[in-house]
Protein: Inositol-1-monophosphatase
Organism: Dethiosulfatarculus sandiegensis
Amino acid sequence: MSAELLNTARKAARAGADVLRSMWNQKLTVENKAKFDFVTQADKASEKAVLKVITDNHPDHRILAEESAHEKPRDADQGVLWIVDPLDGTNNFIHHIPHISVSVAACRDGRPVAGVVLDVTRDEEFYALAGKGAWLNDRPIKVTDCAQKEKSVLLTGFPFRVKSKLDDYLALFKTLFLEVSGMRRAGSAALDLAYVAAGRAEGFWEIGLEPWDVAAGMLLVEEAGGKVTDFSGRDRALWNREMVAANQPLHSWLQENCNRFLVS
Ligand code: IPD
Ligand code: CA
Ligand code: CA
């Protein structure tokens, strides 16, 4: 059953990515959802294409998709719930920075069981199935086993929706930056998580996340052998708007620092 969900997720992500590629050179109308938070016709058109594939294949399943249904369903922990980000990296898309993705996950009883993060411009498809593993373009992927902070690269997102936390975020950034070999802010949380899963970076943290940013990516990291928690170290990061995802040796160090600076 989960394998069937993964097939649908892969088809749905591809349908969204096709739409985004076709709109890459179009002049877009950019609307504000909130200050510093944008939506375009591309987000909406991609979402329509993704949802069509899901509803054609599973007409009875519930869907939480960024541009059409923001509320956490009351019984989100029961049965199948699809979680969709039709364009992760909207600000990159608007600025023609070719680092964007479509993220599609199927959750069962509150946990992601199948997930895809599709890099739209590089055609890198990261996908995972609970209990079976994670792949990049059909090759199995694993997190790194690097335990040396000074050799590690961390990925993050800036807290542009929670600027009240900026000073604490910068204090954390400084502490980590002094210890690691590199930090990156690329603009797609879903791809950040996929990169940790693929061993391209050792860890990721961000505050102010939504479930559609992370549902597929967290499964990728877990299935690639990494660890995903909220800043307090709890297992339930999907709905908590904060996430630490890392390889096994560095997770607790990163999580404890996030906790120290960002949990009040
Ligand atoms: C955003 C991206 C970004 C992250 C933000 C997300 P969007 O998603 O993932 O990297 O820093 O927290 O909201 O708005 O482009 O779908
Ligand atoms: Ca997103
Ligand atoms: Ca989005």
